[in-house]
Specification:
Blueprint (H helix, E strand, L loop, with lengths): L8 H11 L2 E2 L4 E5 L3 E6 L5 E6 L4 E4 L9 E5 L5 E5 L7 E6 L2 E10 L5 E13 L2 E10 L4 E10 L12 E6 L2 E6 L5 E3 L5 E5 L3 E7 L7 E11 L2 E15 L6 E4 L3 E7 L2 H12 L10 H4 L4 E5 L14 H10 L4 E5 L22 H13 L3 E6 L3 E3 L3 H5 L15 E2 L7 H4 L7 E3 L5 H16 L4 E4 L10 E2 L10 E2 L4 H15 L4 E4 L12 E3 L7 H5 L4 E6 L5 H10 L2 E4 L12 H16 L1 H4 L3 E2 L6 E4 L3 E7 L5 E7 L6 E6 L6 E4 L7 E2 L4 E3 L4 E6 L1
Parallel strand pairs: 22-23, 22-34, 23-24, 24-28, 28-31, 31-32, 32-33, 33-34
Antiparallel strand pairs: 1-8, 2-3, 3-4, 4-5, 6-7, 6-12, 8-9, 9-10, 10-11, 11-20, 11-21, 12-19, 13-14, 13-16, 15-18, 16-17, 17-21, 18-19, 25-27, 26-27, 29-30, 35-37, 36-39, 37-38, 38-43, 39-42, 40-41, 40-43
Helix pairs in contact: 4-5, 8-9, 11-12
Length: about 675
């Protein structure tokens, strides 16, 4: 039977009075500090009011819209039933202290009136402006709890001023944005945090578990009033835990943290940086990668087996790179099957030459001072290979119906492939399977054996469309959340590399921020917002340049501290193919070496701490050196005209200015004339 405290309130109240605690059963219970006010309904346990006390933004406003939680449960016939908080009464609401409340809901009632032996217990705390929801679910029913929405805001209100709210999250080194009225969904596999942002303030929401135990979704839902499509109602915001809680088991949910802040996205991301510092382990970077340097990229073969660059020819490319001061070359299509073929097998290709020829060519190029970075992928198994047919199929991810998931492959050169004929489709490998992880490590060791100084894991950031796998006999009870295997595999790969070469560098295509503990080099290209650089000054972001006179891209690379990756003819050519791009890139890197304390080793602050005005299109960024002196980079984005710019740098010392073409600093004038497609750096002397 459902137990209530109400019949013993007198006795219980006396006990709680003696112990300094309190329990409420009707009305409201409140947590507040100098930053935030939070009110819950004691009958339902729903959050009915949330306010930023410093700005008076009432984030959750209409008590009648308050929601405590929601659940979806899976029946044996695979249909779902819902458990809605609106139909439940809290069986316990105990204010443990001035900063902490315990809620409990028991014997939950489904929409169909079925009573389920499930208990949800939550400890809600408010400390220094951080509102934390830490919940535990005891599932004593015979059903799987697929998901639980907790906490929930039933009426997400606009900030003072009425400007629309946008949802922002981290993905691919950028800060993505969507209007909440479009009902966006943000997933923790991309970002551990979500910003609900107005122009002047915001609400920061965090999944406080960087190990990715399961998928959490930051879910917005723009409701509409009945019969009034053009008359929108409240916007709901839920954090949806796709936790798959099995029958007769107990599971703690990842804590969810809410914090209000004043300012734009920088202030919100600063809250993530603060939490990140408590768990992020700085990865090892070799000395050469800590210096100003540039990369290039070269493709040796495609899935069409054109065998463009035999292994023995690679040495001549290495000579070209060394003579131009290139520090590293990323080699694509070196393995059997060519670019995006043959995965996850990392064997050399007889069509390009022998293993020994490639090993020796790598050694010769690296002896010239050019590090060789081998492109590889371990996510997929090429369906055209005998290895897949004979073995690897056992480790593929399966959907609820036992069917394999697939990644579609890519087309590059021939008309047939560009028409979609003959593309190498791939099965999606299960990183939760310890046996497959061992196979992945074995394949990775083939890269180590070739003597390269690093690798780049292309598509490290995703598993195609797969979130959960229902494959049996993979070492866990399905379904398994595939992203939960990313960190364990990265750790195993790093351990294998450390046995051979502790300076072996890991790089990847857009690794999520938590993966950058193992992959400190990220290949993303230039992003709209240089978020990774703002979060971590030590990360290295690769951005390709491929135009014949790619000054605009190179200026952005200077502006936001990217590493140049030269990609002539989309990594099929020679550096001599674009002399204008190469010459300007060299000037930028020379400028960065000359003013390394600012432009390379300094803290990247985006636009914070300075303001710039100009009579044309421009962008700027701020760097702070270890001695607290500041530098500002301004680029003219006009294609054909000079601009006049003015910098405001509060409390500045004497300022000097330099450019890629004139690197020796001179006193900075009050107004700056910046030629078309050019850049300047203004520094405190």
């Amino acid at each position: 039977m459902k137990k209530y405290f109400l019949p013993v309130t007198v006795i219980l109240a006396a006990f709680l009075h003696l112990t300094g605690r309190s329990t409420a059963f009707a009305g409201e219970v409140t947590l507040q500090d100098d930053r935030m006010l939070v009110v819950f309904d004691t009958q339902s346990g729903a959050l009915v009011r949330l306010e930023n006390k410093t700005t008076h933004w009432i984030i959750e406003r209409q008590a009648e819209q308050g929601v405590s939680f929601q659940m979806k449960l899976l029946l044996p016939d695979r249909t779902n039933i819902a458990v809605r908080g609106q139909k439940q009464s809290a069986t316990e609401v105990t204010k443990i202290s001035a900063h902490e409340i315990r809620f409990r809901w028991k014997d939950l009632s489904s929409d169909q009136g079925r009573i389920l032996p499930i208990t949800l217990t939550s400890i809600v705390t408010l400390t220094n402006g951080a509102l934390t929801f830490a919940a535990t679910i005891e599932n004593n029913s015979s059903l799987i709890i697929e998901s639980i929405d907790y906490p929930c805001l039933g009426d997400l209100n606009k900030a003072p001023g009425g400007a629309p709210l946008v949802a922002r999250h981290m993905w691919y080194g950028d800060l993505k944005s969507a209007d909440i009225s479009s009902s966006p969904v943000i997933e923790s596999k991309q970002s551990l945090f979500c910003l609900i942002q107005s122009p002047a303030e915001g609400l920061y929401v965090e999944m406080q578990d960087a190990t990715q135990p399961y998928l959490l979704r930051f879910t917005f839902n723009q409701r509409h009033r009945t019969g009034a499509v053009n008359n929108p109602g409240p916007v709901e915001f839920h954090t949806t835990h796709l936790a798959y809680i099995f029958p007769n088991s107990t599971r703690k949910l990842a804590p969810v943290v809410l914090k209000s802040y004043t300012g734009d996205w920088h202030a919100g991301v600063d809250l993530y940086k603060e939490w990140r510092a408590t768990w992020f382990k700085e990865p090892r970077l070799p000395d050469w990668a800590r210096e100003v340097h540039s990369w290039t990229m070269l493709r040796m073969n495609t899935t069409e087996d054109d065998f463009t660059i035999p292994y023995t020819n690679f040495v001549s490319y290495g000579q070209e790179y060394a003579s131009n001061g290139i520090a590293a070359v990323q080699l694509v299509g070196w393995n059997k099957g060519g670019q995006d073929g043959g995965d996850p097998i990392q064997d050399t290709d007889p069509g390009l030459g022998s293993w020994q020829e490639f090993h020796d060519a790598i050694a010769r190029v690296q002896a010239m001072g050019v590090k060789v970075i081998l492109f590889g992928k371990l996510n997929w198994a090429d369906l055209t290979t005998a290895r897949y047919t004979n073995d690897l199929y056992r480790f593929q991810c399966l959907d609820q119906n036992g069917k394999r998931y697939e990644q579609g492959g890519y087309a590059y050169v021939t008309p047939t492939q560009l028409a979609g004929i003959g593309i190498h489709r791939r099965a999606v490998m299960d990183f939760l399977d310890p046996e497959y992880r061992a196979i992945a490590v074995q394949e990775f060791q083939k890269i180590l054996a070739l003597g390269a100084e690093g690798w780049l894991w292309d598509e490290v950031c995703h598993h195609a469309t797969v979130l959960y796998s229902w494959a049996p006999d993979h070492g866990y009870t399905p379904p398994g959340y595939i992203y939960n295997g990313d960190l364990p595999l990265a750790k195993q790969l790093r351990a294998a590399a450390d046995k051979i070469n502790p300076d072996f560098i890991f790089s990847g295509e857009g690794p999520e921020d938590w993966l950058m503990q193992y992959f400190p080099v990220s290949e993303t290209g230039v992003t709209a917002i240089p978020l990774c650089q703002y979060i971590d000054r030590h990360c290295l972001m690769l951005a390709g340049v491929s135009g014949f006179d790619d000054r605009e891209q190179l200026n952005l690379i200077l502006l936001n501290r990217y590493v140049i990756q030269y990609e002539p003819y989309y990594y099929k050519g020679h550096l001599s193919d674009f002399p204008l791009t190469l010459a300007y890139g060299k000037k930028i890197d020379a400028l960065r070496r000359k003013y390394k304390a600012f432009l390379w080793d300094g803290e990247f602050r985006d636009t914070l701490g300075a303001t710039v005005s100009a009579d044309g299109s421009y962008r700027y960024s701020v760097f702070i050196a270890a001695d607290s002196k500041r530098a500002v980079v301004i680029i003219n984005q006009e294609f054909s005209k000079s601009i006049t710019a003015r910098l405001t740098l509060p409390n500045a010392n004497q300022l000097v200015v330099a450019t890629p073409e004139q690197p020796d600093a001179i006193p900075a004038p009050e107004t700056l004339q910046i030629p078309a497609r050019s850049a300047v750096i203004i520094m405190e002397k």
